[in-house]
Automatic annotation (TrEMBL):
Biological processes per GO annotation: methylation
InterPro entries: Methyltranfer_dom, SAM-dependent_MTases_sf
The entry's keywords: Methyltransferase, Transferase
SUPFAM superfamilies documented for this protein: S-adenosyl-L-methionine-dependent methyltransferases
Molecular function (Gene Ontology), one example: methyltransferase activity
Record protein name field: UbiE/COQ5 methyltransferase
């Protein structure tokens, strides 16, 4: 079932613009740090699976294994199931559940993975405890979260956009951009520091096509998703402010020197 806390904390939704963003994510561009740890027969839990593109990709890496994608909301899961069927990936399933209280027994999975999930929930340490609990001894918990963003030109509108996004997320109980300290959360969740391997992965959008995709997605997301309703409804800004920020994103798309990068903190945590 969906978690009330998850519904209240998450400042986006599963409408067209966020799904467009999430559906771009694959193992190659969002979970490459995990690949060296995968074996063909592993059982994997993908927490916060959304539209399932990473989940389905993980299933391809474990053809003799099985992957479960869990999401607090059922909204994107029919699309994920359809995508898996279209691509002929049969060793995957999608279910609803709450990462704060996973519905699986102890020691069920070889790998438990989460991408850009911990920042959007009420209690990330409890989530990691649950992820650790359902992982087998000798298995791993893997997580990746945004840590820092850089862009060019250094537009004041983008500074405003980032400050507004972070302020709204924190007001709702989220933890935006925790990539630099997710290893600390893992320690608090019960992992020994020596069992935690840290790394950094990046996204970079600089070509014309990349700018067009990223910038237009954020322009649409800024005015046409639940984020916009929350931003205005909770009193953080006016609708006109969001329209102005969306226009700044569209202007940036046209700048041939435009560049946007995100550094993500990554952790591989081995369960004793």
């Amino acid at each position: 079932m969906a978690s009330v806390d998850s519904e209240r904390v998450y400042i986006s939704d599963h409408s067209a613009a966020p799904i467009r963003s999430h559906s771009w994510r694959t193992v190659d561009n969002s979970a490459a740090y995990l690949v060296p740890h995968l074996k063909p027969d592993l059982r994997i839990l993908d927490v916060g699976c959304g539209p399932g593109t990473i989940t389905i990709d993980l299933a391809r890496h474990v053809p003799q294994g099985h992957v479960v994608g869990v999401e607090y909301s059922p909204d994107p899961l029919d699309g994920a199931r359809t995508l898996a069927a279209q691509e002929g990936v049969n060793n995957v399933e999608f279910v609803t559940g709450d990462v704060h209280a996973l519905q699986y027994p102890d020691n069920t999975f070889d790998v438990v993975h989460a991408h850009q999930v911990l920042q959007h929930i009420r209690d990330p340490v409890q989530a990691l405890r649950e992820m650790r609990r359902v992982t087998k001894a000798g298995g791993i918990v893997a997580a990746r979260e945004s840590g820092a963003m850089l862009w060019y030109p250094r537009l004041p509108a983008f500074d405003e956009w980032k400050e507004l996004y972070n302020r709204i997320a924190k007001a709702r109980g989220g933890n935006p951009d925790p990539g630099s300290y997710i290893h600390v959360w893992a320690k608090e969740a019960g992992f020994d520091r020596a069992s935690i391997k840290c790394s950094v992965g990046t996204w970079c959008f600089s070509t014309q096509d990349e700018r067009k995709w990223w910038g237009n997605m954020w322009a649409d997301r800024s005015v046409g998703s639940a984020y916009a309703d929350i931003a205005v409804g909770d009193g953080h800004c006016a609708r006109e402010d969001l329209e102005r920020l969306a226009a700044a994103w569209r202007d940036w798309v046209q700048n041939e020197d435009g560049w946007f990068s995100i550094a993500h903190g990554e952790i591989i945590c081995r369960k004793d």
